[in-house]
Amino acid sequence: MLGFVMCAFWLAFALGGFAFHFTNHTIGSDYSSGRNDVIMQFIAIAFCGLIFWYIAHLAREYCREVTIMCQHIGLFRVATAESFCCSVKHRRPGGDEPMMCDREVMQKCINIWFGGTEAFERHVQSDLCDLLVDQLSNHMVSYWRLAEAAPVFLWFHLDVVARHLRIRYFTDSAEDGALLTGILILLVGLSYWLGVVPMLVRIMFRLSWTMQARCHCRLLDYFKSLLLLLPGISIFGAFVFLHFFLSGYLPYDLGSLTFALITNPLAALVWRSLPVPLPQQNMRLAREDAQS
């Protein structure tokens, strides 16, 4: 699933970038105009919104499947576990030759390794389950995996930097401060790549856990995924507006630097203080209900 989501991210970013450049050249807007720049970015977001909506729907399904799996592990019992040998009555398929019972072998190993069935069941329901949930919740969507999935923002700004450097070094009409402008644009690209995008995905993943419940009507379930997407669009649009505001009302060097100083520490704060709500409470409730 993660590979598909990464491919969908790349396709959405590529589609958004194409829409940005296409509308920019078609409408004939001035690229240096901050207001037109914001309009083009919102048009690009609208073009790739459908793909991100489907990603949000998949994220809800993923969180729901992890929760269901954890509830099943919380109710794990050796006595109710199925084995192939017992299902075929200890006879090899296609003949009457007897076969060894795997359950007896596993039972002996459990007694040797854990001291009994109850200790093994407690280990599976607690330690193993917590480790599995941590891997599927925190490490599956880690910061560095998001950094690997979203370098398109950096590449987009590198393209703009290349334009300024080309004017600075390879044309006769050199612009004053083109090198500094390119460095600041690169700083903004790094801020989007390593700050805004990971922070946004972290918030959306947290919301996916909260809104993972499936609606009885499929149309309402799709609409619920759309509602999940709206906060992400609003947050991303807020950062775009923040960059436009800082660049418009502050000198460009201070605006880009201020944007980087805001987004990167804020991303670190979000990743540190906004953990994913692991379904441990649901598992304990399931175990208590089963025991009672």
Automatic annotation (TrEMBL):
TM spans (from-to): 38-56, 141-158, 178-205, 226-246, 252-274
Keywords, in A-Z order: Membrane, Signal, Transmembrane, Transmembrane helix
Signal peptide (UniProt feature, chain positions): 1-19
Name of the protein in its database record: Rai14 protein
Organism: Symbiodinium necroappetens
Lineage: Eukaryota, Sar, Alveolata, Dinophyceae, Suessiales
